[in-house]
Amino acid sequence: MSPQLGVLALQGDVREHLHTLARLDCRAAAVKRPEEVAACDGLIIPGGESTTIGKLAERFGLGEAITALHMRGKPIYGTCAGMILLADEVRGSDQWRLGLLHARVARNAFGRQVDSFEADLPVRGIPGPPVRAVFIRAPYVEEAGEGVEVLATWRDRIVMVRQGTLLASAFHPELTSDDRVHRYFLDMCRAAAEQV
Hints:
Shape: globular
Strand order of the largest sheet: 2-1-3-4-12-11-10
CATH architecture: 3-Layer(aba) Sandwich
CATH superfamily: Class I glutamine amidotransferase (GATase) domain
CATH class: Alpha Beta
Helix content: 25-40%
Distance between the termini: 14 Å
Number of domains: 1
Structural class: alpha/beta
Number of strands: 12
Number of helices: 6
């Protein structure tokens, strides 16, 4: 049986992630409550407004549930705002965050909404042609700490990383027809399930 994935449904690109996972015949659901997070074999924290998602996560007690999921070895993937929320340091900000990813992240590092762009990125661990990456008010990793593997860069800026069962990208793979990043994460979830 395929792993049960959750997409944190507080704000942001929830529907787009669910559509991509459905194309992969993956069992997935929008999750909003701690008990729903606890039932997941893997969790996606989508792009959106990191401050808003963080405030709602704190209000609803989701930080503890997500941290507990991580401590149980379940994979978590943060895209854009999700990358910010996973990081243990955000430059110039004391906003709420999970602090699980050993990295310093810069918010809105590529400019405003009007500066959004797409790029083709080779991603370590994903064979085939480069991945089409959509950047929207995207962050990037300024400094990757201990145990953090750099999977992709754009113009010398780190835009995708992995730390054990944590995956984070500054871009939005759910906004393209290329599902290889989601397949990569799904493989992480299957591997983690086999460890139990």
